[in-house]
Write a structure and sequence with these properties.
- The protein has about 450 residues and is an alpha/beta fold.
- The chain has helices spanning about 20-30, 35-45, 60-80, 80-90, 105-115, 135-140, 155-160, 180-185, 185-195, 210-220, 250-260, 275-285, 300-310, 345-350, 370-380, 420-425, 430-440; strands at about 1-5, 50-55, 95-100, 125-130, 145-150, 170-175, 200-205, 225-230, 240-245, 265-270, 290-295, 315-320, 335, 360-365, 390.
- The chain has an eight-stranded parallel β-sheet with strand order 1-8-2-7-6-3-5-4, sandwiched between helices. Strands 11-12-10-13-14-9-15 form a seven-stranded parallel β-sheet, with helices on both faces.
- α3 (about 60-80) packs across α5 and α14 (about 345-350) crosses α15 (about 370-380).
- The protein binds adenosine monophosphate (AMP).
- Adenosine monophosphate binds near residues 32, 35 and 61.
């Protein structure tokens, strides 16, 4: 069964989804006014035990989509005494398994699940396990089993081999960000884990994109699934722009935009760990303090940097793609592609860090002539096309303009060029849009 996002009539209030009172009370605490499209379309089906394939990315509200029914199912079982007695028999059991690609996402999803469970009186135990930290604490947390386990595949296999947990009582399997998990090379781990679970179970698969590998997995795993394709909440609120710059001018252009627009929380993506430190030191020369976030840092350092960035103590965070997925940073206003991501799917993951859950966001890419071809592929694969723009004061050499595009000239020409009136007229519609967006920040560029 396929549910089309545009035509389906779905419940418009949480009360209509069939959720139990303590979960509804928590949603009220959290001031969730109404279900997001994916929640409205799928929660009743998940509660009815159906398998699910959901095309949805971070920002769509997908965590609550699987967490609420999972909590409800386990809470009801416990209340009826079923799970308690089973648990004591099973020892190192797990009932609901959520597989995620990264440690950050594991922590974040487990935190969300615990938060949604706030009124369930501690009846549903949730544990997160992930690599990069010692296994001891995780083994301790798994003693006596757990109702919900949020795990990265590699660490879960380690824990299984030390007998800390068994998968033979898994009733519900959630594959979160399946495309990311497979693209990170977890195919073998996932196959090994699937072989340890009962065949009879409910499976919920979430993926932002559906490359062949994911399609193969869905065919193998799911039985008569409900299929849903939703636009994430940010789709309507995320503005994408691409600026062409001369080769060697990306740093100075980035520094200029950050200062001009007085951005206070910018996530900048580069493609390598060394590129993070390199860009941070170059920005320092422009009096911009930036921190880095990549896989070579210890977990503690990464947590500290992330908290500081979330808390607004760090204004510019330069990250590799490890930060591109699943990080729930509320209201991140600006995401920058300093280097273009290698894959078109990663482009979508990166820009999904901005404009979360109905907030306005901005995703900017800086391209020089060596990036033109690659950016066109990103556009084609992701089915969008952006106008090329230039940054005032950083116009590109005429000879380097992509012949496929007429580059939009900057809306505010460099001082003294005498073209200000013409530019102002040309950008009127943009001006209207962006005044709404930032009430002040980019606005000066358009007035
Ligand atoms: P997710 O896509 O699960 O990462 O969720 C993105 C953000 O949306 C998180 O900060 C959630 O707390 C929030 N969220 C999820 N569902 C709703 C909802 N129905 N109303 C408002 N916010 C929500």
């Amino acid at each position: 069964m396929t549910i089309d996002n545009n035509t389906a009539t779905s419940p418009s209030s949480f009360n209509e989804l069939g959720l139990i009172t303590p979960l509804l009370a928590r949603l009220t605490d959290l001031q969730y006014q109404q279900p997001t499209p994916i929640q409205a379309q799928t929660i009743p089906n998940i509660l009815a035990g159906r398998d699910l394939i959901a095309g949805a990315n971070t920002g769509s509200g997908k965590t609550a989509t699987f967490a609420l029914p999972l909590l409800q199912q386990l809470f009801n079982e416990k209340s009826s005494g079923q799970a308690c007695s089973n648990a004591s028999k099973k020892g190192n059991y797990v009932a609901g398994l959520v597989l995620v690609p990264t440690r950050e996402l594991a922590t974040q999803v487990a935190d969300s699940v615990r938060s949604y469970a706030a009124h369930l009186n501690g009846a549903v135990k949730t544990v997160a396990v992930f690599g990069g930290v010692s296994t001891n604490k995780q083994m301790l947390a798994l003693r006596g089993g757990t109702d919900i386990l949020v795990a990265t595949p590699g660490r879960l296999l380690d824990l299984i081999s030390s007998n800390a947990i068994k998968l033979d009582h898994v009733k519900t399997l959630v594959l979160d960000e399946a495309d990311r998990m497979l693209s990170l090379g977890f195919t073998e781990e996932i196959s090994a884990l699937l072989a340890m679970m009962p065949k009879q179970k409910q499976t919920l698969l979430f993926s932002a994109t559906f490359p062949e590998q994911v399609k193969a997995l869905t065919t193998e795993l799911l039985s008569d699934p409900v299929e849903v394709q939703v636009q994430s909440a940010e789709a309507s609120t995320l503005v994408q722009r691409v600026f062409t710059v001369n080769k060697g001018q990306k740093t100075v252009s980035l520094a200029h935009l950050i200062k001009e627009n007085q951005w206070r929380q910018v996530l900048v993506f580069v493609n390598s760990k060394s590129g993070c430190a390199h860009l941070a030191s170059k920005l320092a020369k422009h009096d911009i303090t930036a921190e880095v976030f990549h896989g070579d840092q210890g977990q503690g350092a990464r947590n500290r940097v992330l908290q500081a960035f979330k808390g607004g103590e760090i204004e510019v965070l330069i990250a590799t793609d490890i930060a591109a997925r699943g990080l729930d940073i509320e209201k991140l206003p600006v995401v920058f592609n300093f280097d273009l991501p290698r894959s078109p799917a990663d482009y979508m993951h990166r820009i999904g860090r901005s404009g979360r859950a109905g907030e306005i966001g901005l995703a900017l890419s800086l391209i020089d002539y060596e990036d033109y071809h690659h950016f066109k592929i990103i556009e084609k694969k992701n089915k969008f096309r952006l106008e090329r723009e230039e940054i005032a004061g950083f116009e590109i050499d005429e000879s380097l303009i992509d012949p496929d595009f007429s580059v939009n000239k900057p809306v505010v020409p460099p001082a003294g060029s005498g073209k200000k009136k013409r530019a102002k007229k040309a950008s009127k519609s943009e001006s209207t849009i962006y005044q709404d967006i930032w009430s002040g920040s980019l606005k000066s560029d358009y007035e």
